[in-house]
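ok posting inputs for the manganese (II) ion job
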Amino acid sequence: MGSFARRIRRVFEGFDGDAILIYNTGLVDSNFTYLSGFTSGIFENTALLAMRNGMTLLTSDLEYETALSQRPKEMTVVRYSGASELRDQLRKRIEGKVVGVDASFLPYHYFRKLKRLSKARKFVDATDALSEARLVKEPSEIANIRKAVGIVKRTFNGIERHFKAGMTEKDLAAQFDNLMRLNGASEPSFKTIVAFGKNAALPHHAPDYSRLKPNEFVLIDAGAKYNNYCSDLTRTFIFMPDRRSEKWRRMDDMIKTVKSAQRLALESIKPGVDGRHVHRIAADYINKAEKGVYNGLFIHSLGHSIGIDVHDGPGLSPFTRNRLDAGMVVSDEPGIYLVGFGGVRFEDDVLVAENGASFL
Ligand SMILES: [Mn+2]
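and the output
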């Protein structure tokens, strides 16, 4: 069975309707990317109809050749010119059927139009079936994520040479993004976070004109895309450390604590374990470290699934039950955030395997 036949089968394991319709408006649905494997093209106003025995792509003249050259063998490509032809083609295929859509992506405005024009018997939400199918990765998907991770690791390896007193967070973010591309990324997988000093206490800080000063944190959270797949890594450095200062001692202790929590969490990851349990291990360690000085300062989930999306589904959250399985890729990213002082986060991407887990 081909790779895409297997993907279709996986999706229909969790869905009992007749067809799944992925409709790209201006943005590309990541489930479109999963089912097509396309790495080139915009595919605006393109419909991908998946059924148990194959897929049909309805696309415009603009994308037709691009689609033909990349299509998997399970896919038939049909071109349409104009909205009425798209409607007729769609109606012909789904009239009277039970059709699943990705309700987490498709805007309500477009959904209503589809509903009116297509004469499907019933539309249902196939979001969960789609996202569950994507949780366990195939070897080729893991290879792509591994590449995306390697690009960011290589970029981190040389980055301290680029730290200069007085540079802004924006300067460093621009340099980091450029280096990722030079190292093979097709693009960043999300907006790179660079946070100096006390800004590092804000987990989602957007790089601004803050300037780098000696004996301060430099937190960088970045990801690369490679062949449609994402990575997501974080490192925290201290710029020109003053090892005799009280401030340095605190910063250094925060770094050591977070790294230990990250390592402990990794060691507890294996198939069958609930993601909530892994979060708990890291959170308990941080809360109890140093007689409780960091209690309550780890303020987010330990990790999320990674794949075509940076947040590719549940991972290691305290709130959702998620049984880990071999082939899943999740981030392991504990942090300590001390408002007014600074923050530390270390993040690596973990492959869950039969006999345990390892950083990619
Ligand atoms: Mn992350």
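notes: The two ends are 28 Å apart (CA to CA). The chain has two domains: 3-134, 136-359.
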